[in-house]
Amino acid sequence: MSSPESSAYKATEAAPHDAVRRTEWPLYEIFIRGQHGLSHRHVGSLHAPDAERAMQNARDVYTRRKEGVSIWVVEASKITASSPDDKGHMYDPADDKVYRHPTFFDIPEEVGTM
Amino acid sequence: MYAQMVKSTGEGVRSLDEMDPQERAFQERIDANGKIEPKDWMPDGYRKTLIRQIGQHAHSEIVGQLPEGNWITRAPTLERKAILLAKVQDEAGHGLYLYCAAETLGVTRDQMTRDLLSGKMKYSSIFNYPTITWADMGAVGWLVDGAAIMNQVPLQRTSYGPYARAMVRICKEESFHQRQGFDIMMKMAKGTPEQKRMAQDALNRFWYPSLMMFGPSDAESVHSAQSMAWKIKMNSNDELRQKFVDLTAPQADYLGLTIPDENLKWNEEKGGYDFSEPDWDEFFDVLKGNGPCSVERLEDRNRAWDEGRWVREAMLAHADKKRAAKLAAE
């Protein structure tokens, strides 16, 4: 098998020690759309050398029982996520706009279903 | 269980009054059955304990493929072979769900793998026992997966979001595992006298190691108390073991097999079975790495990692080459 000295490839675990060593496949986040017309939903993550392999791995890891009809794979490092610390000011503005909900308005009974 | 004797902070549970505001808010969220997500603040001990627990659980799924993989090429029929293959593939999947969950806590996959291969991180004691006959495939599915379910079902409500979600996926699949095991046991127990003897022998060998999976009584353990306060452990070891025996004893009756315990008796008063404790000296010895297959299991995992290395590297190199070609074409 390959030894630390024998790998011809740069940037792998077996590359010379002074080179940039990449030891792990990148992480991909996996999104799957189920059969019933719902949106893609995050189901988990996995490691793969590239997006194509991530797709194949996602099929094996997350759809062994027909859980989906469509898969998205996204490199985890490409995702920008909101921070839990922002929770306050990110969502505060929604607090004082209760009129956005239909139940805010009283419709007389004689008007019927609305 | 799949994670046994997981050490927590060892400091004992602190009351809300003793906590600083950040930790108090964290604990109150858990008390109110809220979920903790990867980017949320969490105490260092919570993070470390979870990495140990989820990591050990993941390693158990991966090493757990070995005793069953032993029989894939020797399954008695093509159908049994296909089923066993699917079951072992599920175990690999379970390991991957759990590694993902652990990684959200800041540990890398490679680090966890290295810690398994060096023996620093543990996996469940049960997988250090050999599977020497086909009936063992039945006993493993029925008893080992059965014991795992006892622990995993409540863990679907655990406080750490990614762990809970992994558990939901796993539990959906686990019931297939137990049923396929029981199906093998039924076939053998109702088969020829020789087959029935094999089924009984498998039960004899796997009964006590299955009881050990839950770990020794932890009624007095400060580690367990903290883990339960954090809701990363949902029930005591004794509670789960009792539940397992109560469910399994009638199933053995149905099979016409005898659980190898003279003291096994229904206790009307407590509404459960009385039963003998397994040999805890043996358990600790297996945990120390002296189980019948301990050396073999770690050797197999190390060999798989070493021999797969050129594949991992070649795939990375190929991906790099393709990426470079694509960039050049643009």
From TrEMBL, chain A:
Gene3D superfamilies: Phenylacetic acid degradation B. InterPro entries: PaaB, PaaB_sf. This is 1,2-phenylacetyl-CoA epoxidase subunit B. The gene is paaB.
TrEMBL record, chain B:
NCBIfam families: PA_CoA_Oxy1 (TIGR02156). It comes from the Bacteria. It is an enzyme of class 1 (oxidoreductase). This is 1,2-phenylacetyl-CoA epoxidase subunit A. Pfam families: PaaA_PaaC (PF05138). Keywords: Oxidoreductase. InterPro entries: Aromatic_CoA_ox/epox (IPR052703), Ferritin-like (IPR012347), Ferritin-like_SF (IPR009078), PaaA (IPR011881), PaaA_PaaC (IPR007814). Residues 1-20 are annotated as: Disordered. SUPFAM superfamilies: Ferritin-like. GO terms for molecular function: phenylacetyl-CoA 1,2-epoxidase activity. The gene is paaA. Its EC number is 1.14.13.149.
